[in-house]
């Protein structure tokens, strides 16, 4: 299935890192709730990566046929050209190919790449791509009122239990997300308009 672009319905394109750990934590239903109302896709390259890993981790098979995730084959000339460009930027290892395919799909369709790989995130942002990760997804759901910060923390701890290298624990999530600008400050901590803050925003991975 080829993903169609839409300016009114921003596309989220998932890398293997997010699908992998939500599957291992048995939280794919939670992930589906986090992206309710959004169009979600991944690529055939990512699914091949997950399928190979599933030989040793059967729980990953749950991520291979998600009804709410479209699959971009990257099989047109234009798509293959963008894919090869991102392979040169990101790398040609097995994991690199998955990330490159996600970045190509996100760029082609004007979407957001979703990955928790810090190195890949830096590369994507260097070339102007919108790239975010699990912490951003959780914070976005909290901001929208679909998730409490306590529940977001529980999800983070469940993912960390699968050896997922997230940048904060569940208990640290509220302060981490606020320092990163992903959650609004509580009213008591909003800087006074008469005394503007001069601090530098935190450079955090989301």
Strand element count? 5
Number of helical elements: 9
The secondary structure category is alpha/beta
Overall pLDDT level:
88
Percentage of residues in helical conformation: 40-55%
Element pattern in H and E: EHHEHEHHEHEHHH
Strand composition percent: 5-15%
Q: Report the C-alpha radius of gyration, rounded.
A: 17 Å
Biggest beta sheet summary: 5 strands, parallel
Shape type:
globular
Straight-line distance between termini? 29 Å
Low-confidence spans: 1-8, 187-202
Main β-sheet, spatial strand arrangement: 3-2-1-4-5
Q: In oligomeric terms, what are we looking at?
A: single chain
Please provide a written account of the structure:
With 206 residues, the protein is an alpha/beta fold. The longest helix is centred in the middle third of the chain and has 15 residues, at 94-108. Helices cover 45% and strands 8% of the residues. It has a 5-stranded parallel β-sheet with strand order 3-2-1-4-5.
Topology:
Blueprint: E1 11-14, H1 16-24, H2 28-34, E2 39-43, H3 44-53, E3 70-72, H4 77-90, H5 94-108, E4 112-114, H6 118-126, E5 131-132, H7 134-143, H8 149-160, H9 173-179
Parallel strand pairs: 1-2, 1-4, 2-3, 4-5
Helix pairs in contact: 3-5, 4-5
